[in-house]
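Feature request, filed as a ticket because there's no other form

It would be nice if the structure record came with a short human-readable summary line next to the tokens. Right now we just get the raw output. Example of a typical job, pasted below so the devs can see what we mean:
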Amino acid sequence: MNYPTTRYILLQLIAPCLLWGDRKVDKNVSYGPHERNVIDVYWDSTFKNAPIVFTIHGGGFKNGSKAYCDADTQKLYLDKGCVVVSPNYRLIKHGNGVGIKECEIDCAMAVAYIQANAKKYGGDPQRIIVTGGSAGGYLSARLAYRDRWDWPEDAAHKPKKLHVVGWYGDSPYLPPYAIKSVGKNDPPGFIIYGQREHPATPASQGHDMQAQLKKQGVWNQMVYVKQAGHVPGKQVLINTRSRNAEVHKAFDAFLDMVCHQKGEPAGGNVITISRK
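Raw output as currently delivered:
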């Protein structure tokens, strides 16, 4: 019997790594006039016309930062051949005149900046996927399903359209107007909610959003996690040590569809799992 040599075994272990070039990061890139108008960009030197994924932090519009895009999040999307962008945006503080609308426009300006500068990172400005948790889920939904933007005078880039092709929300805050903004031919949506949600993000919002997506003929998938609290996606999908195989498989197929135009997986149902 012929046994594999040590050299053969080592080549098998390192071969996947040879598919990638140098993974790079550009920190605190300014996209607007305010000190929190900055993004971190992660990419691979081999990327050419790669899809671009935004990961938008939550925190009730009052807290949080772009550090939400942790190592597991970066790996999930980089391994899928995507440029990853994590923005800061202005936060609501007492007396500073910032409201949710300002948080929205900041995130829209971040997307507009990347559309204008995608080639620098090997990205495709026509294929942008927006994701986020909680308040970040709301902001990413607005980027996906809001048609018009009133750009401020000091915005460096004022595109007529944001080229969003997919949306993922982890316990997204979805008031009725955000749900009703979904129209025909809008981007597919993937949603995760826990059973023990924050009062502002009951799982009923996910069911309502899924119903609206269905009504408009838009591809959709919802995951409901029993015994889980707020933003369970970090545990059941993002974290490499605790992710659920069924959810990861479904999300991987979603990314294949929206990022790489590979097929159209079955959707429209609710995947129900239990927290580990």
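Something like this underneath would help us a lot:
The chain has one domain: 22-274.
The longest helix spans residues 100-117.
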